Amino acid sequence: MRREDKNLPRVAIVTGGSRGIGKAISLKLAKDGYTVYLTYVSKKELAQGVCDEILSHGGDAKAFMVDVSNRDQVTSFFKDHVRGKVFLHVLVNNAGITSDGLVLRMREGDWRKVIDVNLTGTFFCIQEASKIMVRQRQGRIINISSVVGLSGNPGQSNYCASKAGIIGLTKAIALELAPRNILVNAVAPGFITTEMTKELDEDTKKVYLSKIPLNRFGTPEDVASTVAWLASEEASYITGQVISVNGGLYL
């Protein structure tokens, strides 16, 4: 680490950090002492609410509107708010969307939208963050994949492809950046209770629950704890790995 970097705020960036798993990760990393920069694309009030909660507990956080699928917005965010202004210790690529449908009926726009946000957005953020972390000779990149990126799931070919792509991206980038002491890992959540999963009907939930050996759905905090551990010094010899947080669920 360069001498001048030691006096800069230690920042963790969490994309899609305003709700669900992203919110839990933001709160946990703030509790661990990071200044959290969380991004959002809509509902500014939710993002600001997370920042206010962090501030009320003595932490520090800022919210930024960034569409990770837009290269110009990602580049501007890192240029205007990160590069040379903070010590970027952690990047958590959590931003993601779904647009489900059977492959025979899936529109090209729905395919591209999910791939652009989930996979290409992750790539854009890694590319910008790695430029900074290489200079620092230190950093952690943690990508949020999914159990369906490992197993597949009918009706989610676009989402599964994006999350499987994140796993391949994680392993490749881990090899590239390891010589600069930058660790790159992925977390693959299973069925986590969030706003997204609450929309499923009760019969579908019962089917998933029957497949989980621990007999409960996961919480955003379960995922956040794993992310925080990967960001910690306790995980300093772990890179290129995919850690499943799924209660034993394999679809």
List the helices and strands and how they pair.
Layout: E1 10-14, H1 20-31, E2 35-40, H2 44-56, E3 60-65, H3 71-81, E4 87-93, H4 108-136, E5 139-144, H5 148-151, H6 157-177, E6 182-189, H7 195-198, H8 202-210, H9 220-231, E7 242-245
Parallel strand pairs: 1-2, 1-4, 2-3, 4-5, 5-6, 6-7
Terminus-to-terminus distance: 43 Å
Shape category: globular
C-alpha Rg (nearest Å): 17 Å
Strand order of the main beta sheet, please?
Answer: 3-2-1-4-5-6-7
The number of helical elements comes to 9
Mean pLDDT: 95
How many beta-strand segments?
Answer: 7
Helix content: 40-55%
By secondary-structure content and strand pairing, the structural class works out as alpha/beta
Run of helices and strands: EHEHEHEHEHHEHHHE
Biggest sheet descriptor? 7 strands, parallel
Estimate what percentage of residues fall within beta strands.
Answer: 15-25%
Which blocks of ≥5 consecutive residues have pLDDT under 50? Answer: none
Nutshell version of this structure?
By secondary structure, the chain is α/β, with parallel strands linked by helices. It has helices at residues 20-31, 44-56, 71-81, 108-136, 148-151, 157-177, 195-198, 202-210, 220-231; strands at 10-14, 35-40, 60-65, 87-93, 139-144, 182-189, 242-245. The chain has 9 helices and 7 strands, in the order E-H-E-H-E-H-E-H-E-H-H-E-H-H-H-E.
Description:
- This protein has helices at 20-31, 44-56, 71-81, 108-136, 148-151, 157-177, 195-198, 202-210, 220-231, and strands at residues 10-14, 35-40, 60-65, 87-93, 139-144, 182-189, 242-245.
- By secondary structure, the chain is an alpha/beta fold.
- A seven-stranded parallel beta sheet has the order 3-2-1-4-5-6-7, with helices on both faces.
- Helix 1 (20-31) packs across helix 9 (220-231).
